Amino acid sequence: MEHSAPAQAARRILVVDDEMTIAESVAARLRAEGYTVDLAHDGPSAVAAAEAVGPDLVVLDVMLPGFDGLEVCRRIQARRPVPVLMLTARAEETDQLVGLGVGADDYLTKPFSLRVLAARVHALLRRLDRAADRDGATILVGDLRIDVDQRRVWRAEVEALLTPLEFDLLARLARRPRTVLARERLLEDVWDWSDAAGTRAVDSHIKALRRKLGADLIRTVRGVGYALDAR
User: Fold this and answer.
1) Radius of gyration of the chain (CA)
2) What is the pLDDT of residues 34-81, one digit of tens each?
3) Is the peptide bond before 6 cis (omega within 30 degrees of 0)?
4) For helices 114-133 and 20-32, what crossing angle results, to 10°?
5) Global pTM?
6) 91, CA 20 to 30 Å: which among 62, 68, 203, 212?
7) Nearest-CA neighbor of 9 among 38, 33, 40?
8) Are strands 138-141 and 106-109 parallel, antiparallel or unpaired?
9) Nearest residue to 17 (alpha-carbon basis) of 103, 112, 105
10) ∠ CA(156), CA(158), CA(159), 5° rounding?
């Protein structure tokens, strides 16, 4: 995969892992891709580093000393929404649901390929670029109002606070209301990658949107995908 050096030079990534070998390997691969990389190795220093350097993306291990990656993610997202790619040694779906529920955008289970990690990072940042370039607009579907320019969402005039990826997923569904979009299509359009295992990430973010905006908002079509049905 080729990237343009000028575009990558402005991107800063915070890598957080208490396993030094993994942290250094990830940092070396991302620097080779043209990113600026900062390192932290525990929960408190990760939060402090995120506040100090304002990263464009965080690669974050779940198991950390001080406090864990889930708490780091909560604290970072509370200060400033930023894409988070979480790393974990636990593959259980419940762990994925918890991680995505605190504002993580994507999940990789150890051991992982550095090539795959770099591709996921690039896809998350490319999604941000695409959102920034999109013309501002307001999407109205029933009692749902989405301000694309300000990246704010209201349902029945009550504002919901969404993570960056939750917002992009909702906006994608809202642009074609009542149309069923396959999980694989959503992965390609919102995450910028297609991976059968990634459909669980789609399901997790749909659950988060229902929790924040109402269980009746998004309809599940079994074996296919989802449709936005706001009235």
Assistant:
1) 17
2) 999 999 999 999 999 999 999 999 999 999 999 999 999 989 988 888
3) no
4) 50
5) 0.65
6) 212
7) 33
8) unpaired
9) 112
10) 125
